[in-house]
Write a structure and sequence with these properties.
This protein is an alpha/beta fold. The protein folds into two domains: about 70 residues, Signal recognition particle alu RNA binding heterodimer, srp9/1; about 90 residues, Roll (2,3-Dihydroxybiphenyl 1,2-Dioxygenase, domain 1). Helices cover about 30% and strands about 25% of the residues. The chain contains five helices and eight strands; from the N terminus they run βαββββαβββααα. The strands form two sheets. Strands 1-4-3-2 form a four-stranded mixed beta sheet, covered by helices on one side. Helix 4 packs antiparallel against helix 5. It is elongated. The relative contact order is 0.13.
């Protein structure tokens, strides 16, 4: 049996799908807005407004619907994690996504649409996996105090136990 299944996240918005797709596709490389289905005269929505659509963020396809306010509140139970190669990438994604949103702790933020993101430098995992438990614990302690993860501060905390 050959399966041709693909899995895509589907995000429920009140009425901001088009704005969200534009926001995300400007931030990430290899991104684009696909088909947006609009309400016609017969639909329950305002004719011409977006009902549902598809967009790609860094090569990953997302679907979205403007389903009204009943489920339009995102929670931290679902988040998207961005693995960053260095502090420059952390700063770029953090600053871009938190614009109009809010910071949280340990590399988490909510964007202007309320969607949660984790902006994580690869170096964090390296330090948390340090074979010296004292260094790993020091890096973890530093991370737990941060909003945006700062690699130099993690390294300084780990190096301070040597």
């Amino acid at each position: 049996m050959t399966l041709t299944t693909s899995i895509s996240p589907c995000l429920w918005f009140d009425d901001q799908l088009e704005q969200a797709a534009e926001f995300y596709t400007k931030i990430f490389p290899r991104s684009s807005i696909g088909h947006l289905a609009r309400y016609g005269d017969a639909g329950p929505g305002q004719p011409g407004t977006v009902m549902a659509g598809e967009f790609t963020i860094d090569g990953m396809t997302f679907r979205g619907i403007n389903g009204g306010p009943m489920y339009a509140e995102f929670t931290e139970a679902i988040s998207f994690s961005i693995a960053c190669s260095d502090q420059t990438e952390v700063d770029y994604y953090w600053d871009s996504l938190v614009d109009g949103g809010e910071e949280s702790m340990c590399g988490w933020l909510k964007d202007r649409f309320g969607l949660s993101w984790q902006i994580v430098p690869n170096r964090l995992y390296e330090l948390l996996g340090d074979p010296d438990p004292a260094r790993a614990n020091a890096a973890q302690g530093a991370m737990l105090q941060m909003r945006k993860i700062v690699v130099a501060d993690l390294e300084a905390a780990a190096d301070a136990v040597d």
